[in-house]
């Protein structure tokens, strides 16, 4: 039996089939730009450190701050969406992301690259936070009759974004001989999507509603907190993988090209996982077994990538990739399956991504501190087995067939 969903809202009927298809394409392309800022930096982190551009204290900042910013700016998204309309906020966020990607690799005279890296990373984090929150509610609003399909497509696009950043950045560095040029290249696809989305945002009218029509107060819902904590543990693992999997593999003796290929292969499998998870979740009576299974797969895959025999590293990479992609998609799908309308969906999205990413950023910082204090990633492998237990517990609770406004 299919999990309960909304009837197609009035918003979707206002679009002709052609405009609806174009909107869907734009949302997917926005998703393709939402993780390159993270995975591209990780792909050339070894070269950036070797260049002397980033001191050790800044490495922790630049790998942790983006995820922290996702949490800080996520609660702002529902407020901006109610004031200006979600599509116009998406357009502004993509323009901000483009600016951040242009600024990030720039050199600031005697100060070097560090100011640009910090400012550009901050702009990217703020922009991605707004897009992260609004995309699920837009899918809920305009594609409620195709939640599984569109949920799978846009989450797969986000995962593909991470794969592109991880797999292409190092070859770009080899081709140009410059890590700054390799990072700069990611500003151009973001700029292209910004231009493409302008007509959609211009046609959209700002949504002005009474306070009582703005959705349920999700902060008082136990179900919302279960979904949020599920997202939190998922984020601790996911962003640690984006930031540290390549350095972990290289520390284990894998060369830069092969490490990038392995990360890309893992994230490529994430795309496959993220495509099937939303459709499967929407068709199930509840999602308890699915959520727990995916949490176990992901934590085991990450831990074994650090601790397991190197001869089987491709097996661990595959387990991690399939599990993490489906886990991320399942967590995001909870936004749509646990709400009755798009206004409650954007409120839940802001809450779960604000708390989930804000606190979840501790994962990347924890890996950095563990490595800095012990000189090894091995303790981090055991740590993420414990994190997997937390994801399993709250994944089970979030998977129960309950709405946040019940």
TrEMBL record:
InterPro entries membership: MFS, MFS_Cyanate_Porter, MFS_trans_sf
MF annotations from Gene Ontology: transmembrane transporter activity
Keyword DNA damage attributed: no
Organism superkingdom: Bacteria
Pfam family, one: MFS_1
Residues spanning the membrane: 20-45, 57-77, 89-105, 117-135, 147-173, 179-202, 223-245, 257-277, 289-307, 313-336, 348-368, 380-399
SUPFAM superfamilies, sorted: MFS general substrate transporter
UniProt keyword list: Membrane, Transmembrane, Transmembrane helix
Keyword Membrane appears in the UniProt entry: yes
Gene3D superfamilies in the cross-refs: MFS general substrate transporter like domains
Name this polypeptide is given: CynX/NimT family MFS transporter
């Amino acid at each position: 039996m299919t999990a309960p969903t909304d009837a197609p809202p009035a918003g979707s009927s206002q679009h002709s089939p052609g405009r609806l298809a174009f909107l869907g394409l734009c949302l997917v392309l926005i998703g393709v730009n939402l993780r390159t800022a993270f995975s591209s930096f990780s792909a050339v982190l070894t070269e950036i450190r070797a260049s002397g551009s980033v001191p050790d204290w800044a490495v922790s900042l630049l790998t942790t701050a983006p995820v922290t910013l996702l949490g800080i700016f996520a609660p702002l998204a529902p407020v901006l969406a109610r004031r200006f309309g979600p599509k116009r906020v998406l357009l502004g966020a993509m323009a901000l992301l483009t600016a951040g990607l242009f600024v990030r690799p720039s050199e600031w005279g005697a100060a070097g690259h560090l100011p640009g890296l910090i400012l550009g990373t901050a702009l990217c984090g703020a922009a991605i936070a707004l897009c992260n929150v609004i995309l699920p509610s837009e899918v809920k609003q305009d594609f409620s009759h195709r939640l599984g399909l569109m949920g799978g497509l846009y989450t797969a696009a986000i995962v593909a974004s991470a794969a592109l950043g991880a797999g292409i950045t190092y070859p770009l560095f080899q081709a140009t001989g410059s890590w700054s040029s390799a990072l700069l290249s990611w500003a151009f696809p973001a700029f292209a999507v910004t231009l493409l989305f302008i007509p959609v945002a211009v046609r959209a009218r700002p949504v002005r509603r009474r306070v009582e029509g703005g959705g349920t107060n999700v902060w008082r819902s136990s179900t919302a907190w279960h979904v949020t904590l599920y997202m939190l543990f998922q984020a601790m693992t996911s962003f640690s993988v984006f930031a540290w999997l390549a350095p972990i593999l290289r520390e284990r003796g894998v060369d830069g090209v092969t490490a990038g290929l392995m990360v890309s292969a893992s994230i490529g499998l994430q795309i496959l996982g993220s495509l099937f998870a939303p459709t499967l979740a929407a068709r199930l009576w509840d999602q308890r077994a699915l959520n727990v299974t995916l949490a176990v797969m992901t934590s085991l895959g990450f831990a074994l990538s650090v601790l397991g025999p190197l001869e089987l590293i491709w097996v661990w990479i595959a387990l991690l990739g399939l599990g993490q992609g489906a886990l991320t998609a399942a967590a995001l799908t909870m936004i749509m399956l646990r709400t009755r309308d798009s206004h409650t969906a954007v409120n839940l999205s802001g809450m779960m991504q604000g708390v989930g990413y804000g606190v979840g950023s501790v994962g990347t910082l924890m890996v950095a501190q563990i490595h800095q204090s012990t000189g090894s990633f091995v303790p981090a492998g055991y740590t993420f087995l414990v994190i997997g237990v937390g994801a399993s517990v709250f994944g089970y609770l979030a998977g129960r067939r309950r709405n946040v406004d019940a």
